[in-house]
Amino acid sequence: MLLDLTGKKALVTGIANNRSIAWGIAQQLHQAGAELGVTYLPDDKGKFEKKVRSLVEPLNPTVFVPCNVQDDAQVESVFQTVAEKWGKLDILIHCLAFASKDDLTGNFSETSRSGFSTALEISSYSLPSLARHAKPLMTEGGSIVTLTYLGGEKVVPNYNVMGVAKAALECSVRYLASELGPDNIRVNAVSAGPIRTLASSAVGGILDMIRHVEETAPLRRTVTQTEVGNAATFLCSDLASGITGQVLYVDSGYEIMGM
Ligand code: NAD
Ligand code: 0WE
Fold first, then answer.
1. Ligand 2 centroid vs 238 CA: distance in angstroms?
2. How far is the CA of 1 from the centre of ligand 1 (A)?
3. Atom 18 of ligand 2: nearest residue by CA position
4. pLDDT greater than 80 at residue 226
5. pLDDT (0 to 100) of residue 1
6. Distance from residue 25's CA to the centre of ligand 1 (Å)
7. 64 in ligand 2 pocket by Cβ < 6 Å?
8. pLDDT per residue over 125-176, tens digit each?
9. Which residues pair with 37 in a beta bridge?
């Protein structure tokens, strides 16, 4: 069976709670037999750490480390730990994004210099940054998967600077795929349809967007974290050995519609 990830070491970023897309991915990778490492965004009170730790406990992660992608020292430390504990890495899941809430509403032209910079630093630059550190550990080849959204390609009202960040992210997927291909490291993106998560629920009008998808997408429904997790797991497996640099839509078919 080509979709057997037994013996594979998978590092998953972006789990915040049981609604996170990264949580759906981690569960499916675990089910396919992968050994998991999990990073969490540290905060002053250690709230996230506690929450994520108890959530992922049933998946027996053998690496559990803090990672704020804005801090190079933390990123380095993550891969130091992976090198010590695992000695190699097979799979990297990049499943994080952030823009200031003020920049996800109103006029795009009013995005501040710092808001633009923050959104692209966290949501886009983090992919090449993590990939650079993963590269020397992916000694037997590897698979890197990131999460994107249609708003990086077409205008989605209010997605604004996050759309620009996703465009940069998707283009980074292609440049990384080209660079890392000779080392048999594949890099792909999953473009998910709107799902209610911590990040999306904080956005005004997400319920209207979900209703719109339910009315117009070919499958007449939204997708689940598990469906996104399955597609990501496929891309990480040998079933996808010939696929790199691509964006795979897991969106109930919404992307094909012109009206
Ligand atoms: P989420 O809130 O569960 O996940 C976002 C994650 O980003 C959180 O775990 C948070 O801790 C992490 N994060 C934010 N800033 C960080 C930083 N500086 N360093 C490290 N981690 C940081 O929400 P989600 O919807 O599961 O989002 C995951 C990914 O899926 C994002 O890339 C998002 O753009 C993408 N996506 C979401 C949807 C959707 O509708 N929910 C659709 C398509 C794509
Ligand atoms: O990528 C995303 C969400 C990204 C996101 C969400 C937040 C809310 C809380 C990034 N940063 C923040 N910052 C916060 O303070 N999605 C694809 C979900 C999403 O977000 C939208 C959407 C959709 C869909 C924003 C506007 C319009 C549509």
1. 32
2. 31
3. 200
4. yes
5. 75
6. 12
7. no
8. 999 999 999 999 999 999 999 999 999 999 999 999 999 999 999 999 999 9
9. 11, 63
159 close to ligand 2 (CB < 6 Angstrom) = yes
C-alpha span between 175 and 179 (Å, rounded): 6
Q: Yes or no: say if 86 and 9 are a contact pair by the CB < 8 Å rule.
A: yes
Which long-range contacts does 39-42 make (Cβ < 8 Å, 24+ apart)? Answer: 39/11, 39/12, 39/13, 39/14, 39/64, 39/65, 39/66, 39/67, 39/78, 40/15, 40/16, 40/64, 40/65, 40/66, 40/67, 41/16, 41/66, 41/67, 41/68, 41/96, 42/66, 42/67, 42/68, 42/74
Chain mean position to CA 122: 12
The residue-averaged pLDDT of 194-201 equals 90
End-to-end CA distance of the chain: 40
Task: Looking at the CA of 125, name the nearest ligand.
Answer: 1
C-alpha span between 22 and 12 (Å, rounded): 7
pLDDT confidence of residue 212:
97
Q: Mutate which of 96, 147, 247 to test ligand 1's pocket (most atoms within 8 Å of Cβ)?
A: 96
Residues 218-226, mean pLDDT to the nearest whole number: 98
Is the CB of 203 inside a 6 Å radius of any atom of ligand 2?
A: yes
Quick check: is 149 catalytic? yes
| pLDDT tens profile 30-89 | 999 999 999 999 999 999 999 999 999 999 999 999 999 999 999 999 999 999 999 999
Give catalytic status of residue 249 as yes or no. Answer: no
